[in-house]
Amino acid sequence: MATKLVTEKLSAWFGKKQVLKDVSIAFEERQVTALVGPSGCGKSTFIRCLNRMHELNPGARVDGKVFLDGLDIYGMDPMEVRRKIGMVFQKPNPFPNMSISDNVVAGIRLSGDARKSDLDEIVERTLKSVGLYDEVKEDLKRSGASLSGGQQQRLCIARALAMQPEVILMDEPTSSLDPASTSRIEELIRKLKSEITVIIITHNVGQAARISDKTAFLYLGELIEYNDTKAFFESPKSPITERYITGRFG
Amino acid sequence: MRLISRRSKEKLIIAALVALTGAAVIPLLWIVASIVWNGVSVMSIEFLTSLPAPFGSTGGGIGNAIVGTLIINLFASGLGIPLGILTGIYLSEYAYDSKMGSAVRTVVESLSGVPSIVIGLFAFTLIVLTFRHYTGIAATLALGIMMIPLVAKATEESMRVVSNDLREAGMALGIPKYNITTRIVLSMAKGGVISGALLAFARISGETAPLLFTALFSFYWPTGINQPIATLQVLIYNYAISGFADWVAKAWGASLLLVLVVIAINVAVRTLGRKKYGGA
Predict the structure, then answer these.
(1) B17-74 tens-digit pLDDT
(2) pLDDT tens-digit readout, A143-164
(3) Total domain count for chain A?
(4) Contact assignment for B163 to A93 by CB distance below 8 Å
(5) What is the CATH number of the domain that holds A178?
(6) Which chain A residues have a beta carbon less than 8 Å from that of B97?
(7) ipTM score of complex
(8) Which residues does chain B have within 8 Å of residue A80's beta carbon, measured at their own beta carbons?
(9) Of all residues in chain A, what percent are helix, strand and coil, respectively (each to 5)?
(10) From the CB of residue B212, how many other CB atoms can be counted at a distance below 10 Å?
(11) Which B residues in the span 170-209 are in contact with A, Cβ-Cβ below 8 Å?
């Protein structure tokens, strides 16, 4: 299995406060990696370093290296990085001023890469890949904000996929959704890994166990344990990991 | 016993509030009523479309002043609205937290507090004294400057309320910031920006002081912007104090027209706001 994305001694700060300490981890290509850990452990900051979003916060700082296919993303154009490494947020955030179809191709259109002729085809193909097409094909011109929460989140995944990213980062994508929508998205994530590398933060260890190939546990800004998901849950090496996955804190 | 006294206290407070609100509303209604009462009798097609009649004769109208106000307002809008929007965008998206931003914000806020006659004096010094004649250009400059802070404030405020989640969504897609700003944030805020621009337009429609020594007045149709131009505001001022019954009546008519325009703009803005926030 090839590695796709590698971090080396990645540290991050908000002002003077260090929230991430020397995290080194290698993500496998076309696998789902789950990041688990209690609130405030640095999971979100960590994945926001992977697409160079962390540095947008005032006073934020990053140290260490992140390699995508061997190239340091901190030496690349951040816009280019974010087109290759897509992101889905905790709260669905479709653009309310755009229709469903315009949402899907917003990234393509607004990043100046408009291959206008095949946009309709991209809309259809991408919405099909997230299982939304049949639900919305009659009203592609309706506002993206008119959909239900679960549909909005799938629309946001479609919007990220339309950029044809190589990696997709998901920050607790189901935490604001009902159980039915959650299981649809989990199913979608399992399907996505045939083409794409998925890194997902989850608050729900059950979800990590269900959908991921590998699981990493972060605690107080440090990587405590990283292993195949099965081994991670069956025989955790660290006592802190064990306490976390058995629900004794978190 | 106690309950009754509490209830009557409540009634007393409500009565006081109604009375005070009435006291605030009555002068406003009085003004509007007297303008309608005095102005409606002179309203006619001739009044709205003709030049003022020669001295001593009755009839004629205020057509040139209507056209003049429109010209000056449109040119002022052409100056003030784009500059205001750009300033608002800068303050909201590019310099919200920075020292430069708060410096610009302070300047803009101070500008909105500068008395209009002072801004008129500035335009007079800069343009009228340079060209050595009264000109609509100076009026345009003065009113345009007055619009900038109003439009900038409206733009900044309506862009700030756009959720930061949407900016992040745009950044995460690799969309350049100028496109996030214009195609996402500004597009979401456009209702507020348009309202702000319309209210600024309404506001300058009533400004008289900066016009008195810039556009001055004229009894003829305007043929260009670089000349003295009649405006409704200065016409009202000149005619109202003239002492001729006919002119005073025309001043009332012009006032009615001006008030109708301002009310229409305010109603339009309110409707726009309802559409935006009331769904549908």
Answers:
(1) 999 999 999 998 999 999 999 999 999 999 999 999 887 777 889 999 999 999 999 9
(2) 999 999 999 999 999 999 999 9
(3) 1
(4) yes
(5) 3.40.50.300
(6) 58
(7) 0.92
(8) 174
(9) 40, 30, 30
(10) 19
(11) 170-176, 179-180, 183-184, 187-188
